[in-house]
Amino acid sequence: MGRNTRKRRTPLATKAIAASAALALGGGGLIWANFYASAHESNNQSWGGNQTKAATAQVATISCPDVGQKLTNVPNAARQGVATELANLDKQITEAYNRLASTRDVQTRDASFVQNAIVGPLKEKRAATIDRIRIDIQRVGGSFDNTLKQLAACTTQTANQTNAGGQQQNGGQQQNGGQQQNGGQQQGQNGQQGNIGGQAGNGPVAADFVDITKVAPNVQGKPRKTGNASTGTFTTRCGVNANKNHNTDNVIVAPGVANGAHHLHDYVGNQKVNAFSSNNTFLQGGTSCQNRSDLSSYYWPVVRVQDGTRDFDQNADGGGKEGNVGRILVPAQAEIKYVGSPAAKVVAMPQFLRIITGDAKTTTNGLANANAHWSCTGFENKVQLTQQYPICPQGSKVVRTFAFQSCWDGKNIDSANHRTHVAFADPASGVCPNGFKAIPQLTMRLVYNINPPTIQNGQVKNAYAVDGFPEQLHKASTDHDDFISVTKNGLANKIANCINRGQNCS
Q1: 3-state secondary structure of 410
Q2: What is the reported pTM?
Q3: Confidence class of residue 469 from pLDDT cuts 50, 70 and 90?
């Protein structure tokens, strides 16, 4: 996948002290350390004046390729082992993040420290893990592309060489990531003071928000319906996770690995989903849905308000220990609806079909798979944002929407990289790619009561953000949603038939 390379301006620091924010992505990621100092802080005994000046505005970045996205042909017998090793890559970069965050003083003194003590050892660990992936695949007779070994190396970059998440600068706001937040800024887990925004020091920043009233309309028209269109809808009511069913696992991407997501999920629908769940346990899981035949799992990263408060997981993996801090918000509404195709009749979803929409790692992977949609009530038909969070006017609520892939290859309920077994229809015609069949399109709409953030002197106060991997900077573009189709009593066929008949069912 291509990387968005538009450069961003890095502001000069006005506060004195070298600070670091290390950001780590599993499988592939970004570790970002900003070092800011000022000659005005010569009274600090840790550094002499010349050393302090030399540290001014230095930015170190480590970019690691996302191995999982390149693994498109893994034999079924090897997938569990490969998933475990991909989770190990996540863990390794998280450990590198902790190492980077806790050694900022020595990094200021020793320009080679990051390369020698962090990047070099990280490459060795990644090389060994990728080789274990090779062994897992070849052991069951699969073929391994040896060029994947080159993905072990991580590279260092300066901030202006990397555009985190491809953020656009709507509303004329500038990136002020190098400055500390005013009010409510908290110490990180390693005592670091946040320096790229956010209550935990890893975002969001002022440039991640835009006044939605100042954004030009950008919603495109829908494809024209053909005579074979499937025009019905099926709504399933599963609640808003008021019972706080959370975990930091991801059974699709990292089965059998606790904290495989490194961020917290809301779960509605199936009530027994964690890293160790299986197709058999899904059938025994019970459901929060009013339709008791809908045992599907619908889960998404939580949204938090960073107003200086912390939640129950402030000292936990996937929570505060990994940069996900603030008060967790329960959606005011969670609407789940299946819709049809403008170009074809749909076939029923297969049992246990897994779909991930969006990309939690757009800071590393670029925006090719980004599918985030942020808006405000009253604006949804006019403006949808992928790369920024909206600041809604008074009386308007924040809205997250997801439109999942609506084409299926007709054979597989999952794929090695969790993407290639499903696809999006052509946006202009609504037609599925060759070899794919139209299925009911899962759409979700989550509505939140959020007091609008304010931006003062380039700083955002009372920001909100979606949970994510710490190095992803809590960018809006990293929003994503996960789904496992589990039904009984013929519900999958009932959904398809309702949609094909043009009815509105629930």
Answers
A1: coil
A2: 0.81
A3: confident
